[in-house]
């Protein structure tokens, strides 16, 4: 047999943002061995893919799957969407390098309880991922808040020179061990008090590695443009590509400003590599943040440590039942998680459609009542936004979750269907693909995802993970790929 697997007569949408073409694909030893007319060749496994699209496996560039890839390595919420690589460590929070003195500070608690944090060095985390053999590939950022929590007794202030030096040492060691870059979550109270200079100094470690800077901006509300400027300043200082996490116009007073945000992004892109990720929903989700409590839009509680019984209920209902204000109710629920219906659909669409934006789920795998993006983000872009709404062609939707993403994060030999690239592949039905998870029933697998291969191994088919787990840890592989700086 010349190939391990032959996928016959699929419409190949190769991730490069060009229209599809019909061809056969031969897989051998984990890689794409041949693309073309392979009608006369046989293989151990053959798949008739007529009527289906074959795309590169999706790269979920924005996840909080840090510890779940080890504790629940089957990764069904992601695999069932066609995701074959997750990037962890976003928003300033990472599982490594972390040495906790108590419970994880907010929002590190999104990654699990204290028991989940057992990786004092990044190399320990990498070894744990390799040992767990998750079903998807894993690449990792180092969280600024995680570094702060390692070296500071009080997160409500900026770091001292000694603390910054200690954080820099840990960041450098982690980059040497294969981390992709640094992430910050400056909006969160645990990092908000870090001044720009603290991040600027830390970011200097990125330069020698060509590593990336990703950021959950200091504000996604009215001061969002100033927050973007801060991110660009840091990136230019470090000569590090900038990726703005889940770009959005948050809060009713901010709706309609997406053209300004995108103009700012385009302006910065003229002289520096910048981009953003976003998830395809007009609601956000995180820990319950008192600063975001408002009666201007709906807020749903997803979990609460003191009141687990209220998961899935609206904050307003709970407040009415308890006879308390929204703020007092929120205080009583903490620590807790929430979904905020705080975006405008037109802004979401404009940002999603922009050439500089990638798709990332921002799914929260620990949440007992998660935002549906955890199970639905990628099929929602393919089905709802591309096919049904017509926001962009299917090959552009695929590009935003494959080729663009791999180039931005420097994942070499992934993200496109090309000979000798790794065989991370998803076969889907372009007429049937759709997200099924919604805010009422958020834990439901998408429809229309027919088969998923990870490093050449068939890992998901007929609506089920088949128990094969062939994901790898993806270390930063040096200089970033092309296509970064151009619009
Ligand atoms: Zn975030």
TrEMBL record:
Gene3D superfamilies: D-aminoacylase. Domain 3 (3.30.1490.130), Metal-dependent hydrolases (3.20.20.140), Urease, subunit C, domain 1 (2.30.40.10). Signal peptide: none annotated. One of its GO terms (molecular function) is hydrolase activity, acting on carbon-nitrogen (but not peptide) bonds, in linear amides. This is D-aminoacylase. Residues 46-459 form the Amidohydrolase domain. It comes from Pseudomonas palleroniana. InterPro entries: Amidohydro_3 (IPR013108), D-aminoacylase_insert_dom_sf (IPR023100), Metal-dep_hydrolase_composite (IPR011059), Metal_Hydrolase (IPR032466), Metallo-dep_Hydrolases_sf (IPR050378). GO terms for cellular component: cytosol.
